[in-house]
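Thread: quick sanity check before group meeting

JM: Hey all, I'm pulling together slides for Thursday and realized we never actually wrote out the predicted structure for the chain we discussed last week. Dropping the sequence here so it's in one place. If anyone has concerns about the input, flag it before I start.
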Amino acid sequence: MLSNYIENECAKFWIEKEILFVVYKNDVSVDLAGAMKVVKDRLFLQQGKAFLVFCDMRGVKSADKAARDYLALEGSVLIKAVALLVNNPISYAISGFYIKTSKPIIPTEVFTDDAEALAFLRSL
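JM (edit): ok, ran it. Output follows.
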């Protein structure tokens, strides 16, 4: 059962079974303003409660450095852990490299399989 759904120009957000889903739209390019809007809408949906986050990034065409940096730090507020879902080996490698270099302050893993991503979140 879906509860509390929000959508903006970059992504769709909803909470299901204590997991917050963030699904980026197809061919979206995320800049700092877009990243700030994503975080603002996510925080509004969360209403002050921390969640595990399933983030489907398969639609993201690009994200500039300012957006990535913002999401790695300010974007971690009220998140217990995040599973990033990507759709190809290049995105997987880039995301993995970014996690190693940006050192997110919350548990963050990259997956190419949605069931594995959900299993990671449910194991926490």
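AS: nice. The two ends are 22 Å apart (CA to CA). The chain is about 35% helix and 35% strand.
JM: adding both to the slides.
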